[in-house]
Amino acid sequence: MHDVIIIGAGMTGAAAAWAAAKRGRSALVLEAGRLHHRRGSSHGTSRIFRTVNESAKYSRMVHRSQGLWREVEQESGTSILRMRGALDFGPTRNVDSLYAAARRSGTDCELLTAEAAQERWPSFRFPTAVIHHREAGTIDPQAAIRAMLDIAIDNGAELRTSTPVLALREEANGVLVETPSGTFRGRTAVIAAGPWLPELFAATFPDVPPPMVTVNEQNVFHFRQRDPEEQWPVFVYKGGLQLFALPSGADGGSEPAIKIGRHNPGKVVTPDRRDGVPTAENREIITRFVEEHVPGLEPTPVGGDACLYTITRNDDFILDRIGSIVVASPCSGQGAKFMPVVGEIIAGLAFENAPADPDFSIPTHAQQPITAAR
Questions:
Q1: pLDDT in tens, 45-63
Q2: More confident position, 127 or 240
């Protein structure tokens, strides 16, 4: 019997396996597809890492996460974080409030006029004042998943790909997981299924109202740098629309590119019922933004993608347990940078009877202690 069975080998599942291994616990990780498949939310080589957050709780979490990412890098010999700095600007980006929050958290940052920022970053045209913070850059999710899983496997974890879960249920002494290749038993389980959470939750807990989440398809496009040697920061723009941007990594092809995407709600989909094709409307909107505000990029995108956000009603995470099963959805488009901390929280719920943070709990059930995970 495994100490924990983890359903999903994206970033959340990999982080849970890594944290279990740190505690000397045996883990079985079940992935329905192949590793690094592109149907969920963890594929590719580039996500934003940033320490500035107006929420004191999330700010504390991401600062701790930064140290844990370095721990994963050192233990695995893998490069995951690439620090580039970050810029925040735009008519509805409250830079004064964000700057104050950054100073409270001890983040190294500065508040610049549009003219001063323009002089420092001539590849932009800034319509407003700008916050620059240095503790930011990119995460390589594909490298992160592989590194965390390798550490877990080196410590006794087992990974099974192409192994979809047919049923998950509690038993007297733990949990039972049925798959096409066999039935597995564990003392506890973690649902880390990303955009498949709604259907797996409903099948596992038919008598529990499901958490209020939606799965949205977001569009990103890659734009070539006019100067391939330029080191670009990540940036967030808020105006009539919300945009995020970061170096594309390998996702943008063989030449340096910047990935720009919309953070606004996209169309509601399911991971198994969507076309995965970026829309012409979003291509036009983002291209127009590049033409107006980012002259350092070629204005014609060289590629695009449609990725999935699993979004809660208030954008907070779901990190809770029902009986012997932990439900984990660190989501809403902001989860990647927090993953090592998320893994620790999951391990606390699974093995230590840690109470769920009220901000991360499922409000529709009475929490029960995990008696089988001792």
A1: 999 999 999 999 999 999 9
A2: 127
If one counts the domains in the chain, the total is 2
Catalogue the E-assigned strands of 2-102.
Answer: 2-7, 27-30, 47-50, 81-83, 86-89
Kindly state whether residue 61 falls inside one of the protein's structural domains. Answer: no
Tell whether 96 and 131 lie within a shared domain.
yes
Note whether 220 and 353 are same-domain residues: no
Phi-psi region of 371 (alpha: psi -120 to 50; beta: other; left: phi over 0): alpha
In a domain, 67, yes or no: no
Q: Name the phi and psi angles at 55, rounded to 5.
A: -85, 125
pLDDT of 253-310, one tens digit each? Answer: 999 999 999 987 788 999 998 888 899 999 999 999 999 999 999 999 999 999 899 9
Report CA-CA distances (Å) from 72 to 52, 151, 220, 250: 22, 8, 28, 21
Structure tokens at 354: 């840690």
DSSP 233-265: PEEEEESSSEEEEEE-GGGG-SS-EEEEEE-S-
- How many residues are there in the chain? 374
Tokens of 134: 């240095």
Task: Go through 46-69 and write b for each residue having 16 or more CB atoms within 10 A of its CB, e for each that does not.
Answer: bbbbbbbbeeeebbebbbebbebb
159 part of a folded domain: yes
Q: How far apart are CA 339 and CA 42, in angstroms?
A: 11
Mean pLDDT across 83-89: 97
- Give yes or no for a contact between 2 and 26, defined as CB atoms under 8 angstroms apart: yes
The answer to whether residues 188 and 129 belong to one domain is no
**Residue 221 and residue 122 share a domain:** yes
DSSP state of 182: E
DSSP for 321-336? EETTEEEEE--TT--G
Q: Which residues form the domain of 199?
A: 2-45+142-211+314-360
